[in-house]
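can u pls check wat happens w/ NAP
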Amino acid sequence: MQNKVIVIVGATGGIGITLARKLAPTGAALVLAARKGDRLQALAAELANLGATRVLTAPTDITDPTQAIALMQKAVAQFGAVDVLVNSAGAGILKQYNKLEPADLNAMLDLNLKGSFYTCQAAAEVMKERKVGHICNVVGILGKHSMAMASAYCASKFGVVGFSKCMADELKRFGIKFTLFYFGGVDSPFWDTVSLKVDRTKMLRPETAADAILFAIAAEPQAVPMEVNIQPESHLFF
Ligand SMILES: NC(=O)c1ccc[n+]([C@@H]2O[C@H](COP(=O)([O-])OP(=O)(O)OC[C@H]3O[C@@H](n4cnc5c(N)ncnc54)[C@H](OP(=O)(O)O)[C@@H]3O)[C@@H](O)[C@H]2O)c1
C-alpha cells in the first residue's frame, strides 16, 4: 500500500470516507475527489491527523469528462502516477417506473453510468503508460440483480458492469485490472435522500464495504479479485 497512489472518487461519501480513513495510516498517497471542496478539505485535515502525509484534494464533477481527465492529470502532476482508482461516487433515485421523470433518468445515467465511464476512461489513459493499474468500481448488487422501484438506478448500474467488463478485456494487455463490488444496502448518506422506506439498521456498515475494497487493493499483483459480492443477511439476492 505504501507506494501506491490511490484516487478515491466519492471520497466524502459513506463508503469513500471510510476507505480514506482506513488508508490514512498506510503511507499511500491519496487523491480525494468529489464536488464539494470544503468537505474534501475537512477530510484532508482529518486524514493528516490519522497519519496521512500525502493527500491531494481535487474538487471534481465526474459528469463532465474534462474534469475527470483533469483529476487524473492533477494526480500524476502531484504524485507521478495513478495506481488505483476507486470509483465510489453515485446516487440513487428509487421510484416506480411510471413516476420517474426524464430528469430522474438523466440524473442516474449522467452520474452513475457516464460519470463512472469518464472516470475509468481517464484513469486508464494514465495507467496505460506504466502498464499497471487497478480500477475498483463500487457498483452495488443492483448492477446485476433487479429490484422493484429501481429501474433507472439498475439501468445505470447494469451499464457500469457492461462497460467495465469490456474495458477490462481491452486493458488487460496493459496490466490494468478491474474489481467490481456488488454490495447490498450500505448504511450511508446515500439513503438520506431516497424516498423508499428502508431499514438502515439491517444494512452493511460502510466499514465492511471499505474492508472489502482494501482487500482487493492489497491483493498480490498477479491476483485479480474480479468480483466481490457482500449482502446483508436480511436482504439476500441469489
Ligand atoms: N449505500 C448503499 O447502500 C450502496 C450499496 C451498493 C452500492 N452503492 C454505490 O456505492 C457508491 C458510493 O455510495 P455511498 O453509499 O458512499 O454514497 P454517498 O454516501 O451518498 O456518497 C456519494 C459520494 O459521491 C459524490 N458525488 C456525487 N455526485 C458526484 C459528481 N457528480 N462528481 C463527483 N462526485 C460526486 C459525493 O460527494 P459530492 O456531493 O460532494 O459530490 C459523495 O462523496 C455509489 O456509486 C452507490 O451507488 C451504495
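The pocket of NAP is lined by residues 9-16, 34-36, 39, 60-63, 88-92, 111, 115, 138, 140, 183, 185-186, 188-190 (CB under 6 Å).
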